[in-house]
């Protein structure tokens, strides 16, 4: 998953988590970011989504950054701030979804989340020339020694991280739905 995709996924899953936790958000007077639903979402975000981004950055950084900068030139503090921003974008998605839930605009929230996921899915289409090859920044810039994406550790890592995020997100949705049935 390249950086633009994982950022979009963070925001969209935040919106979906707020929609799934709507039973709590509708009846609780507490701010949405102090709700149990938000806490469960942040566990998902910090235990699966951000570590997936860290994995791609550490092991396939140039590809993850779409070969726009040499990952070796990025200070570690900047990378750390980037991953904090990824979690904050997930929180912003939850806050946006919670605002729509409280305004009784769940359909609009669902459309927003699906639109952001559509953008995430279109990233590989628009930058397929960059994502279709695997190598270092120097290899990409020089046009030598690049391997095809469909083979090797990056492809396997993408499958594994994608499956973990999907399963974790599915569990989160079920957990929020079941806890909402107890409230409502």
Give a structural overview.
With 184 residues, the chain is mainly alpha-helical. It has one domain. It has 8 helices and 2 strands; from the N terminus they run ααααααβαβα. Strands 1-2 form a two-stranded antiparallel ribbon. Helix 3 (36-64) crosses helix 4 (76-102). The protein is elongated and about 60 Å long. It starts with a helix and ends with a helix. The model has no long low-confidence stretch (mean pLDDT 95).
Total number of β-strand segments? 2
> How confident is the prediction overall: mean pLDDT?
95
Q: Tell me the distance between the termini.
A: 37 Å
- The helix/strand series, from N terminus to C terminus, equals HHHHHHEHEH
Helicity level: over 70%
Question: What kind of oligomer do you see?
Answer: single chain
Low-confidence stretches: none
Number of domains: 1
Shape: elongated
How would you classify the helix and strand content by structural class? Answer: mainly alpha
- Annotation field: number of helices: 8
Keywords:
single chain; 184 residues; mainly alpha; two-stranded antiparallel sheet; elongated
Structure summarized in a few sentences:
The protein is mostly helical.
Question: Secondary structure elements and their pairing?
Answer:
Layout: H1 3-20, H2 22-27, H3 36-64, H4 76-102, H5 106-126, H6 128-131, E1 133-134, H7 137-142, E2 147-148, H8 153-183
Antiparallel strand pairs: 1-2
